[in-house]
């Protein structure tokens, strides 16, 4: 297997890899991007390693496709980060990653397991419309501002362990029977929450438990959180 | 008088010569770019990559039918060769 190896390389100017197809292994372990890194629409056909990478400016992976394992463990995103509409076919590792700006995963699809444990997002973690096909756990991670799960879809039993200032789940769908969102430090009493659970479901938010009737395909439980469903905590 | 001390960079040496991508010139660089164009394998571990160098590398990578650049999977070892650091003066 051949490919591209940029371990410990330093990119001194904008690194534009838009729509590049990496047919072999692509490795950027501990590389440093001093300026913007753009992988928009890039196609990684094998495993890709960005472990310990430092992105000093923006990191754009919008509409990128990762066919193998996508390893971003311990990576440091110092600027804006965009994985919008990216497709992760294999496992996704962001364990220990640090996002100093927003972490943007809106519209992304995760077909494999996801590892966001120990990840820290210093602004908002955006997963609007994201699809988690096999993930059973999200976190534990720390989000300094809002965890945005609006319109996200979770196909499996999912345990979300996120400490966040707020949680938004408007029209989020949990298709498996049980979901758990125990953000230890989140103020569930203030977080606007709108959820739709399909099938018999149990949901836990900040220690509060909600039960949905067994016949409740598509039962919205927004009424359970009605007192909280105003405003949007998303911080800009 | 002793010659200036030889500096050693961390960039992996190209197959020809004792320099990495960032410090190679002339025939060594051209040979490496030609080889990259043929096999699509790029070993730039530890290399400081400037805008011009990245442009050269991407331009050399073979294209597919879609005219999209591609780092091709060729060869059988699956790994880059053992790294020998670049020597720069």
Give an overview of the whole structure.
The complex is a heterodimer of chains A (236) and B (89). Chain A has 236 residues and is mainly beta. Helices cover 0% and strands 41% of the residues of chain A. Chain A contains no helices and 33 strands. Chain A has a 17-stranded mixed beta sheet that branches. A 10-stranded mixed beta sheet of chain A has the order 4-8-12-16-20-24-26-28-30-33, with no helix packed on it. Chain A has a 6-stranded parallel beta sheet with strand order 1-5-9-13-17-21, with no helix packed on it. In chain A, strand 31 and strand 32 form a beta hairpin. Mean pLDDT of chain A is 80; it is low at 183-194, 196-204 and 206-236. Chain B has a two-stranded antiparallel ribbon with strand order 1-5. Chain B has one domain. The longest helix of chain B has 14 residues, at 26-39. Chain B has helices at 26-39, 51-60; strands at 7-12, 42-43, 48-49, 70-71, 85-88. The chains are: A mainly beta (236), B alpha+beta (89). The interface between A and B is medium-sized, with 28 and 31 residues.
Topology:
The complex is a heterodimer of chains A (236) and B (89).
Chain A: E1 3-5, E2 10-11, E3 15-16, E4 21-22, E5 25-27, E6 32-33, E7 37-38, E8 43-44, E9 48-49, E10 54-55, E11 59-60, E12 65-66, E13 70-71, E14 76-77, E15 81-82, E16 87-88, E17 92-93, E18 98-99, E19 103-104, E20 109-110, E21 114-115, E22 120-121, E23 125-126, E24 131-132, E25 137-148, E26 153-154, E27 158-168, E28 172-174, E29 178-181, E30 195-197, E31 201-205, E32 208-212, E33 219-220
Parallel strand pairs in A: 1-5, 2-6, 3-7, 4-8, 5-9, 6-10, 7-11, 8-12, 9-13, 10-14, 11-15, 12-16, 13-17, 14-18, 15-19, 16-20, 17-21, 18-22, 19-23, 20-24, 22-25, 23-25, 24-26, 25-27, 26-28, 27-29, 28-30, 29-31
Antiparallel strand pairs in A: 30-33, 31-32
Chain B: E1 7-12, H1 26-39, E2 42-43, E3 48-49, H2 51-60, E4 70-71, E5 85-88
Antiparallel strand pairs in B: 1-5
